[in-house]
Amino acid sequence: MSEEKEAFRLRERLALPPGYEEAIASSSRSDISDNDDESNENQRLLFSSDNNTRNGGDDDDDDDDDNNNNNNGNINVGGGSGGGSANPPQAATSGSRNNNATRPGGYRAPTVRSVRSSFDSNSSFLPSSSSSNSGDDDDGRRRSTESLRRILEVMDIEEPEYDGRSSRIRERISKPFSILGGAISSFGSRVGSRFGWFTSRIPSMPRMPSFLRFPADEDGIINLQRFIGVIIVVIIVYAIFATDVFTMRMNQGHQYDPDSVKRYLIDNVDPENIKHMLKYLSSFDHLAGTEGDYQMAQYVAGKFKESGMRDVRTEEYEVYLNYPNKDGKGRRVAIVDPPEMRWTATLEEQHFDTSKHPGKITPVFHGYSKSGNVTGHLVYANYGSKQDFEYLKSKKVQLKGSIVLVRYFGTESDAAIKVKMAEDAGAAGCIIYSDPKENGMVKGKVWPEGRWAPDDFVQRASVGLTRYQPGDPLSPGVASDFKNKRIKKEDALMSKIPSLPLAWRDAQKLIGALKGHGSKVNDDWKGGIPDVEWWTGDKNSPKVNLMNMQVEHDKQKIWNILATIEGFEQPRKAIIIGSKRDSWAYGATSMTGTAVMLELMRVFGQMYDIGWRPARTIHFASWDGSQYGLVGSTEWVEQYANELRMDGVVYINVGTAVTGPNFKARGSPALQLALNTALGWFMDPSTNSTLLESRGDRSLAGPAINTDSLAFTNFAGMASIDIGFEAEDGDQAIPLHSAYDSFEWMTKFGDPKWEFVPLLAQVWGVLTIVMSDNLVIPLNYADYAVSLNRHLDDLKRWVDEKREKRRRHGHEDSKIDWKPMKDTIRKLRENSLTFNEFVTQLETTLLQLDGTEPAALTVERLEHNNKLAMFETHMLDMSAIPGRPWFKNTIFAPQVRSELDHLWFPAIVDAVEADDWEKARFQLERLRQIVDNASNWIKR
């Protein structure tokens, strides 16, 4: 093999692109600008394969990307073609392996090709998707499987034994020795054959004269002969490793071609299988904790087992949940005064065809809403933001005791905060309706002729205060199990006024009833409801009765389903992929994520049966209770927080997976290069370019704040990322949380050609392989530092606007010194670049030794990976964000009000919003110290 070819193959194993050295050279010339101004049992449950159930489980066995290229300091430890430092790889198309579809304009989708250049022979690769086009699909799959089996059979993979019950303290004390010991046990028979010449030449030890022996009396005095024997053994073991007589990872048999594994996964994703599962998953109502949800949990657990996973388990929690009455009674929105205007809302969807869906659909309601029966004068408050309520106050509109009507979306996107703003303003109740201006007839044709929502569409939602505390509101910060105490409901952080969702069909009557009361509103307050005038209302507005009498369970069971593929090299290191499973109704768009994950597990199960193992452990998770307030994932993270902070590497989430053709991603900036690696493999069906090229120079702007990633980022301190495909208008373009969110809508408008759903499965799978199997974990904290600096500049501009506003109102200027923070971020970037130089050293050594990795270098590489995995844990502040004690991450957290449009630096933003400038300065210095400590963690 030529030197050039060998270098290219090593770059792939290390996830280094061609042009890597040039990227380092260019990054060194770039700089950041300065603007001057609990327990072993938990360890066993989480990471061991002998656990099947918990608490009686019954199993047997918003893409707000930065529009800036994040290339300052890019070092492509993530692989592929990241950061523009290399040409993108030839890409794979999604869909069936027999896909011969021709794109618009005569373009024919290319077949799957390797990310490598033409230097490498294709003889070791799996058959490309084009090969299957000319033959039977099943034959192609068998050939693909047999090819991978031949590749893997020559590996002679030997899995080291792993005891998940071992003490973490013992691990820390014995870490250097446990790595060496693991190497010895991994190589077994090879050691004897390789060192037989050496051991055969060690002379047998003569028997020591009796007069020189220590007496073995009852006091247990150490026998000198044994002591000398131990010393000799230690010297021999040390000599073996000190001289690098044998190596680590390569001798473990991990010698397969990484492209072959990725291409096997791509080739074997079955689009029709995903569609078949989604049809069942969205065929009946499955609200969290209900009979339908339990049936869905059983189905998913069964599919997990069918995939061949060796460790499938159900983890059960008892959490607070509320439901509408079974008979649908106890809910009402009605005009009750004056008598001539009396009217009662219909509430439910009327036009949806339920013939294809067995059982009843969930009545419209708000999760975690307050039970109550209240009556008050009607007031219209636009989107229900803080500014909207301030406007009403400026117009002298009486809000105390009112029933407030607001619309979904807009400047305040979170339904829970809309209700809280109404509560804080003194309202007695809150109604949230879906306006056709956001997602109805104003946008285009409505269902069934178009994708937009009809007039009886009702968006169910949670009004749980996840921006203050996700999960079970009665067990803040701890898992909801029998061991932990629960707080009283009246002490819990929940809404204190009743609320209900409403269709615009019903809201039209309420808006019309306000005519002549209060003030006419501005155009930006006007919705898309026809034939009405828009007024604010006042204390003389018609009286409206809002009734929401519900069933409440303090300890309702929910079920997370999990499975594991144990890693062979760093089994404690966890790559976790997950998706939500519960739904307000049929939930086809949200259940797409579950269907995709089940298909991924099937393919991973095939790879496992053939003999493939990842270097790091992969956990698959199906979360329950996500719709109420990310309950299932939050309780799980709270239970295993210590283990995740120590060993969690990344969480990859797919929620509402596909609603359109545009790729979306939110996540830690450190994952940018890993994402680029995965995207470079695939063609975008919409643009005839790779997904990486279609994405352009957008970089990850931070983790999602309203998905199951939240607990992993903000409580466990792990890197996280959410991926999917969406319509141009995002969530507004789907009949979210309604009866219309159905399989029929999904196949007609969500993904009519059924090409983006299988494509997402392939992207998710390749990204999982990249994160679990690269020699070096592809996390780049130089990228993280650049993004940190950019968002600090954004924060500074926002703070300056606040200062100017204070000065205009006659307040003393509140100065903040940003320079120490800027200097610390520069230090973080410099330390990150130096830390990443290890990858260059690793590549050089492997090239010099023909791909053989010495044991000492393996030890160094594993320690390098450990530091990478724990970096974001160092961004946690266990004293938490003031006023929101659940949130521990100092860099990312949802702001209390979404209209602030800030994800970064939450404690500082909260302080400035509260007009507490001394606290803002304190929080900035606290942040600087934390970033500095994290920077020192990766200092070489």
TrEMBL record:
Regions of compositional bias (Gly residues) in chain numbering: 76-85
Biased composition (Basic and acidic residues): 1-14
InterPro entries: PA_dom_sf (IPR046450), PA_domain (IPR003137), Peptidase_M28 (IPR007484), Peptidase_M28B (IPR039373), TFR-like_dimer_dom (IPR007365), TFR-like_dimer_dom_sf (IPR036757)
Keyword Membrane attached: yes
Chain intervals with Polar residues compositional bias: 87-102
Sequence ranges of Low complexity compositional bias: 21-30, 112-134
Domain Transferrin receptor-like dimerisation: 816-938
Domain Peptidase M28 residues, every copy: 560-743
Taxonomic superkingdom: Eukaryota
Region (Disordered): 1-144
Biased composition (Acidic residues): 58-67
Family (UniProt): Belongs to the peptidase M28 family. M28B subfamily.
Name of the protein: Uncharacterized protein
